[in-house]
Specification:
This protein is α+β, with helices and mostly antiparallel strands. It is built from five helices and 21 strands.
Length: about 325
């Protein structure tokens, strides 16, 4: 029994000695331990790496409201962690969003940017994720729809002597969706440029619509089918002082016209006039049906190439006096 008490006494003595050793200069030892912890943390921090990229920002709202003011389209993401942890993550597996679904009236609201992880981003819990900006202030307005006409947007000029005639747009109207305040200012939508430079024939093109406001949504494909008709410019020209010719009169007669000249006004393509000859335009009276002398009213015919259209002629009728030729005396002549 005395031996057992002796052993217990030794243990208590050793504990008191150990406590005395620990208590000796305890402030210095505490500082040393604290510094060791700091050095360990700094060392661990120095081993961590950062990765930066940007992801689209999704806005979640009540279905009756829609963003009506500018907001960040992209959010900067910072990943902090071990290289083997952060670099295998696919950027598409981290999504940024702000939620305004609890708001049901137009106004200006503030919400924090939140992160949704999926796929490769779910494989680790030791990674730190931070966003910039941390929150977004957004103006919400009533969501409306509106039908707007489409307007072609031309540039350049067709070939000289030609003009753009009729054209069609399919569809001619499109449906727009957006905040009420912005929709009220939209009267029409323009297409991207339609280049007319050097064109001399009909053509078609698939065109995109130009969205005047990024916050507006164009329903449908956003493509417009354009069909254009390019034709020669029409020109009207007068041909004046044209002699009226007598044609197909029997040789035993000759005619005297009441009016000997007139004019013709014709219409045709610009380039056609560049090729027409003066002798191709004229006036005439057909005397093939006359078989006796006398005075007759006859219609005047305008002569011109068939590619032209007659606008006016003067005269339209003329009186002609038909006289019989005197027979030649066979006894006269040279000796």
């Amino acid at each position: 029994m005395s031996s057992l008490n002796s052993k217990k006494g030794d243990i208590r003595q050793r504990i008191r000695s150990l406590i005395a050793v620990i208590a000796e200069n305890w402030q210095a030892k505490a500082i040393a331990i604290f510094m060791a912890i700091i050095l360990f943390v700094v060392h661990r921090m120095s081993l961590l790496q950062e990765r930066f990229f940007s992801v689209p920002l999704t806005v979640e709202t009540d279905n009756a409201l829609i963003p009506a003011g500018p907001y960040p389209g992209m959010i900067r993401i910072t990943l902090r962690g071990d290289a083997n942890t952060i670099y295998p993550i696919i950027e598409e597996d981290i999504q940024a969003y702000i939620n305004f679904e609890k708001y049901t009236e137009p106004g200006t609201y503030r919400a924090p940017v939140q992160i949704h992880k999926k796929g490769t981003a779910l494989r680790t819990e030791t990674m730190e994720i931070s966003v910039d900006p941390l929150e977004v202030v957004l103006v919400l307005d009533e969501r409306l729809t509106k039908t707007a006409p489409v307007k072609p947007n031309f540039r350049g000029s067709v070939e000289p002597g030609y003009e753009l005639g009729d054209y069609t747009l399919d569809p001619a109207n499109v449906l727009l969706e957006g905040p009420a305040g912005l929709l009220a200012d939209v009267k029409e939508l323009s297409t991207e440029f339609i280049d007319l430079s050097g064109r001399s024939g009909d053509f078609s093109a698939a065109l995109r619509l130009v969205n005047p406001e990024p916050l507006l949504i164009i329903r449908g494909s956003g493509l417009i089918e354009f069909q254009g008709v390019v034709r020669e410019q029409l020109r009207v020209q007068n041909f004046e002082d044209l002699p009226i010719r007598i044609v197909d009169l029997d040789d035993k007669f000759f005619g005297v016209l009441e009016i000997s000249s007139g004019f013709v006004r014709i219409e045709g393509g610009q380039t056609m006039f560049d090729r027409i000859q003066d002798q191709e335009v004229g006036l005439s009276v057909d005397c093939s049906a006359i078989d006796s002398a006398g005075e007759f009213p006859l219609p005047v015919s305008a002569l011109f190439p068939e590619t032209f259209t007659l606008i006016r002629q003067d005269p339209e009728t003329v009186r002609i006096q038909i006289l019989r030729r005197q027979p030649r005396n066979p006894g006269t002549g040279g000796s």
